[in-house]
Design goal:
It is a single chain. It contains 9 helices and no strands. By secondary structure, it is an all-alpha fold. The chain has one domain. Helix 4 packs parallel to helix 6. The N and C termini lie far apart (about 50 Å).
Length: about 160
């Protein structure tokens, strides 16, 4: 794991090496579960930085996946890191730079985190529910709907409006 962390430090922010290294980290967190805990503090800064790299959709998606996997691997022991994860994910939801597909993966991540830590998610529940209500209330301009949304997104919007 120390070699993987060194790879992250030497990789450039948009490097394919960084994405592949994050995939290794994601797999390791699932494989060794609670034994992954000592490595999380060293990863937090890198996770934060890549969650702010809005121009790299693949890296962003992998990073959100890492948060999911860490939460699944550590379960209740994730509690000490949850505030950092939730805070940066909420910041990302508020930015206008991030595209909707990336925001949808964040909303899904909130659900996964909530399922894993259960009652310990309560301090974040009201904020996340507010964001979900706002997302559900979004209206798509019918003039631009087909050009700005994929068929799946359009179907999702139509289902929400029913």
């Amino acid at each position: 794991m120390m070699l993987v962390l060194q790879l992250i430090q030497s990789a450039r922010k948009t490097s394919i090496i960084l994405k592949d290294t994050f995939l290794i980290i994601s797999s390791l967190s699932v494989a060794i579960e609670v034994k992954f805990t000592p490595y999380i503090p060293a990863l937090l800064l890198f996770l934060y930085l890549t969650l702010k790299a809005y121009n790299n959709i693949q890296l962003f998606t992998v990073t959100v996946g890492i948060i999911n996997n860490i939460t699944h691997a550590l379960g209740d022991q994730t509690e000490q890191y949850i505030q950092a994860f939730i805070t940066v994910l909420l910041e990302n939801l508020l930015t206008k730079v991030l595209n909707w597909n990336m925001k949808i993966s964040i909303l899904a991540c909130f659900g996964d985190v909530m399922l894993m830590i259960r009652s310990k998610f309560k301090p974040y529940l009201e904020t996340v529910m507010t964001v979900l209500r706002q997302a559900a209330a979004l209206q798509v301009n019918p003039v631009h709907a087909l050009s700005s949304l994929s068929a799946t997104d359009l179907l999702s919007v139509l289902l929400v409006q029913m």
